[in-house]
Amino acid sequence: MSWLSSWDSFIKVVESGSMAAASRRLDCTRAQISKQVAELEREFGVRLFERSTRKLSLTPSGEIFHQHALRALEAVQSTEIAVKNMGDVPRGVLRISASITFGRLYIAPLLPKIVSKYPELSCELVLTDQLDDLFEDNIDLALRMTKAPPEDAVAKKLVQLKRVICGSPAYFAAHGEPKTPQDLAQHQCFSFLHTGGSPDWHLVDRQGEQISIAVSSKIHYNNLDCILAAVLDGYGLAILPTYLCAQEIARGNLQTIFDDLEPVTNFGRYLHACYTPSRIRAPKVRVFLDELERTFNPIPPWEA
Description:
The chain is of the alpha+beta class.
């Protein structure tokens, strides 16, 4: 099936916008990609790309071939998965994606347990706060905290995530404790850095009414570990998930405020296990889902 490589190279050129970018993704030379595309054009007897000094664009024939090539390669991938999944013994490589902080704390420790139970199984954990493409990045299962799970995947709720507003006793001793939510605007408040997102805090009361606070900070992080460290050092307040800060609260290193209000963030209220429909038939995915269920239910470890 040598044609698969050429078809995949063609798709990568379309997605990347150039042969040079496609060669970097496929870890090969630009000349190899150019040769494969030329062979396709010679085989079909049509031009697939319009070439200029600035960019490549698909010809009408190229657009048709691109649509069919995508479906064909997806079918091949599904066939490979189905064949490899024959039998009930988990085997092969289980590729998992999770956010950096949560994955480090709660997913990484699970993998040695899984591998020790199933000798024919190996695991790869990709820690990233970016949303991986399940197909493109060959992810068997992604653990995502999001309001909008991908529409082309199965999204199973694993556990509800609680968030609290907290600060260190040293901060409150130096700056006082806010008496009302509106007082937060007068304090140093760390918000998770979103590209183009609003730094405002959104809180919901028990009647479902939302309060928006225009908080401010001179320092911004896109990593929860950094925010936790800054709060522990007494530099400000933050909305933090209890999976990260529960131990520090129990030790008295942090204290919470406005416990009757629920912080609402772009990450949503739930941790989802996301996978493509074909993956659930894989024994390796099923046993990992079972392990996740045992870990987070009925009580997640940070609340135990």
